[in-house]
Amino acid sequence: MNKVVLVTGANSGIGLALCERLLSQDTEGLQLCLACRNMQRAQAARCALLSSHPTAQVALLQMDTSSISSVLAAAQEVKLRYNRLDYLYLNAGIMPNPQFDVKGFFKGLFSSHIITMFATGEGILTQKDCVTPDGLQQVFETNLLIRELEPLLCHAGRTSQLIWTSSSNAHRSAFKLEDMQHQRGTQPYSSSKYASDLLSVALNTHYNKQGLYSSVICPGFVMTNLTYSILPSFPAFLWTLLMPVFWLIRMFTNTFTLTPYNGAEALFWLFKQKPESLDPQAKYHSLTSGLGNNYTQPRKMDIDLETSDAFYEKLRQLESEVRKKLKEKQKVCSSLAGPGSS
Ligand SMILES: NC(=O)C1=CN([C@@H]2O[C@H](COP(=O)(O)OP(=O)(O)OC[C@H]3O[C@@H](n4cnc5c(N)ncnc54)[C@H](OP(=O)(O)O)[C@@H]3O)[C@@H](O)[C@H]2O)C=CC1
Ligand SMILES: CC(C)CCC[C@@H](C)[C@H]1CC[C@H]2C3=C(CC[C@]12C)[C@@]1(C)CCC(=O)[C@@H](C)[C@@H]1CC3
Predict the structure, then answer these.
(1) Beta partners for residue 158, in sequence order
(2) Which atom of ligand 2 is nearest to the CA of 234?
(3) What is the CA radius of gyration of the chain?
(4) Residue 190, ligand 2, Cβ within 6 A
(5) Distance between CA 211 and CA 46 in Å, rounded?
(6) Which atom of ligand 2 approaches the CA of 168 most closely?
(7) Domain ranges for the chain
(8) Is position 89 annotated as part of the catalytic site?
(9) What's the Cα-to-Cα distance from 323 to each of 13, 134, 195, 214, rounded to whole Å?
(10) How confident is the model at residue 22 (pLDDT cuts 50, 70, 90)?
(11) 25-46 b/e with 16+ CB inside 10 Å = b?
């Protein structure tokens, strides 16, 4: 039976590199579904994958992970197309309006935190306006997607995996249970990645019995559209000129994976693992040694079970409120449409 793999944010960067790596290892036994918000970019990614793997099964799915209606419609479509889902890679993500703190960067260069700064971006990045047009954090819509796909993910007698692309930039201090949407802070990226770490731990508590396992990874520092958006005025050739400097930094921190292929290492590694053997409280890091060798390393996350459970409960509450509102909206729409309409 072919394994069904759905990857969000699959049209570029780490998501696309993962798809390429999955197909390189097994072209015939996979049904790959690229879930993207922009169908033109998705089509280009599909063509690129098929040019190197002409016999592969690569489908496209339109989904904007920042919109409730788009997520619900896409989930419906997945349920119509497939009767199982073996891997759900939750990879789509952006850094909303990043601000690079030049002063903080130079201060960090001459401090004892230099390695941490390069490994996590701590102290040199802030962001603005993180909520989606629906007024929610993206992790909420992602949770909704998982809930909608539950019937395909939870099956007696077989396991399935949720794999989140998180970050070492995820920080407990950036996340407040009282301000889940991070309306009052300047670290929405860090906060939302920490929220996905919390949710992953809670999902393991609630779903492992039903055969569903969740893991988080950090791809390391990778040169992608997300990275380029941090310094928009920095021309592409300067990034290329900086590559020797980055290779040099890699001698001191193996988190400088730099290429999407290397960054996808942990995502690919998890694909090959038995989910029961994984540590639910570990983050799996893609790492690249000074000599350019890739490997995956688990590191314990700074998470307590009470907070992860409390967050899970709050998301459940929010979900039932949102579903109630959607039902009311549907009722109003159908009453406006007149009798006979459903
Ligand atoms: N690059 C890095 O150093 C690091 C990246 N990460 C994480 O890796 C993941 C992948 O990012 P990366 O490959 O670097 O960057 P890219 O910008 O190359 O890829 C991000 C992907 O997510 C998609 N996406 C963004 N928002 C949405 C949305 N609302 N709905 C659907 N798709 C969406 C993008 O689509 P589109 O092309 O339409 O914009 C794109 O395909 C992200 O979650 C990021 O936070 C984590 C740590 C480090
Ligand atoms: C222009 C200068 C000479 C070099 C500037 C380098 C910085 C822009 C990078 C150094 C470490 C990088 C980094 C990230 C972004 C770009 C840097 C700050 C991330 C924050 C990207 C998103 C993540 O999730 C983190 C894991 C990355 C950590 C390192």
Answers:
(1) 155
(2) 1
(3) 20
(4) no
(5) 30
(6) 26
(7) 3-95+129-228+257-337
(8) no
(9) 33, 13, 21, 24
(10) very high
(11) eebeebbbbbbbbeeeebeebb
* Distance of alpha carbon 261 from alpha carbon 330, whole angstroms: 44
pTM to 2 decimal places:
0.95
For residue 285, the CA-to-ligand 1 centroid distance in Å is: 17
Q: If you measure from the C-alpha of residue 285 to the centroid of ligand 2, how many angstroms do you get, rounded to a whole number?
A: 16
With a 6 Å cutoff on the Cβ, whether 175 touches ligand 2 is no
Top mean-pLDDT range of 20-34, 144-158, 254-268: 254-268
Are 7 and 31 a contacting pair, CB within 8 Å? no
Alpha helix ranges (H) inside 28-182 = 39-52, 68-81, 102-109, 114-120, 138-153
Q: Which is the closest atom of ligand 1 to the Cα of 65?
A: 30
* CA 13–ligand 2 middle distance (angstroms): 15
Q: Ligand 1: residues whose CB is within 6 Å?
A: 8-9, 11-15, 36-38, 41, 63-66, 91-94, 165, 167, 218-219, 221-222, 224-227
Q: Whose CA is nearest to atom 10 of ligand 2?
A: 118
Percentage of the chain lying above the pLDDT 70 cut = 98
Identified catalytic residue from 189, 207, 284, 312: 189
Tokens of 207: 């779903």
Q: Is 192 in the pocket of ligand 2 (CB under 6 A)?
A: no
DSSP 235: -
Superfamily for domain range 3-95+129-228+257-337: NAD(P)-binding Rossmann-like Domain (3.40.50.720)
